[in-house]
Design a protein that fits this description.
The protein contains 7 helices and 5 strands; from the N terminus they run E-H-E-H-E-E-H-E-H-H-H-H. It is α/β, with parallel strands linked by helices and 182 residues long. Strand 2, helix 2 and strand 3 form a beta-alpha-beta unit. Helix 5 packs antiparallel against helix 6.
Length: 182
């Protein structure tokens, strides 16, 4: 059973020297676009396979953008695991004026880019078909087939292509000692 922890309480706890293991369950691109210092990224879709990576002695705090995905993951851990969820997620942390580690300039997660691209292809194809352009429906069907294939196999070709785009590449910055080790 998970409980919520407020931003103020977590900040106070970390400031007092207690170090719960903070795990961000968002995708790597979301994590890179801004995460709480000293969090570890274990994406939601990898969480069950990586349960043994958890360090439970000082507690676990799950984090996502707003809290809903972290609540789902907390449910997977079951009542026997002492886990808390950061209320409001990284959005609440940032709104409180607290530091976020930003390691990528992208503003959109890879999943959002895929949804936008597929949606745009389907919309364009159906509009073209409605306007009498016969091949427009094939564009919409191609996007639908790609989404179906991605759902069935967990291999998203559009995601793979988008991940290689320049705006999704990480930028090397000088290494700094994390605040959790100071």
């Amino acid at each position: 059973m998970s409980t919520l922890v407020s931003v103020a309480d977590l900040k106070s706890e970390v400031g007092s020297g207690r170090r719960p293991q903070m795990i961000d369950v968002r995708t790597p691109s979301e994590y890179a676009s801004g995460h709480i210092p000293c969090t570890v990224n274990i994406p939601m879709d990898q969480f069950e396979a990586r349960r043994k990576d958890l360090r439970l002695e000082d507690g676990v705090v799950l984090v996502c953008k707003a809290g809903s995905r972290a609540q789902i993951v907390a449910g997977w851990l079951g009542a026997a695991t002492p886990v808390r969820v950061l209320e409001g997620g990284t959005d609440a942390w940032a709104n409180a004026g607290l530091e976020l580690v930003v390691s990528a300039k992208t503003r959109w997660s890879l999943e959002r880019q895929v949804r936008f691209g597929a949606g745009l292809m389907i919309l364009t194809g159906t509009v073209l078909a409605a306007l009498g352009v016969s091949w427009g429906i094939w564009l919409a069907m191609f996007a639908g087939a790609g989404l179906t294939f991605a759902g069935a196999t967990d291999i998203c070709m559009m995601g793979i292509l988008l991940a290689k785009m320049p705006w999704n590449q990480g930028r090397a910055e000088p290494a700094l000692k994390p605040a959790c080790e100071r």
